[in-house]
Amino acid sequence: MAALALINGACVANARAEVTSVYVAGKGKYCKEAVVNGYLDCFYASFDACQKRYKSQDVRCVPNPNSNTLD
């Protein structure tokens, strides 16, 4: 069980490292994940605004990793 926790801890650490290597365009609180991996278009003030803009497409909206405000 200790080994499993260590493996999970390593996975979490790797996930955090990936977030810091993302290129963020814009200063909005929410972002559209771009087709290019590791690139976020952050031009939306709310999650709903992002989702509404891309409702007919298979697009994922996520919080801006550079934003300190959570809704």
Give a topology summary.
Layout: H1 2-20, E1 23-25, E2 30-33, E3 39-44, H2 47-53, E4 61-63
Outline the structure in words.
- The protein has a domain at 23-65.
- It is α+β, with helices and mostly antiparallel strands and 71 residues long.
- The chain is flat and about 30 Å long.
- It has two helices and four strands.
Largest sheet: 4 strands, mixed
* Tally of alpha and pi helices: 2
| Shape field | flat
Alpha carbon gyration radius: 15 Å
Class per helix and strand makeup: alpha+beta
Helix-strand sequence: HEEEHE
Percentage of residues in DSSP E strands: 15-25%
Span from first to last CA? Answer: 35 Å
Spans where pLDDT lies below 50 across 5 or more residues: 1-19
Biggest β-sheet: strands ordered side by side in the sheet: 1-3-2-4
The count of β-strands is: 4
Mean pLDDT, as a whole number? 74
The residue fraction in helices comes out at 25-40%
Brief synopsis:
The protein is α+β, with helices and mostly antiparallel strands.
Descriptive terms for the model:
71 residues; alpha+beta; four-stranded mixed sheet; 37% helix; 23% strand; flat; disordered N terminus
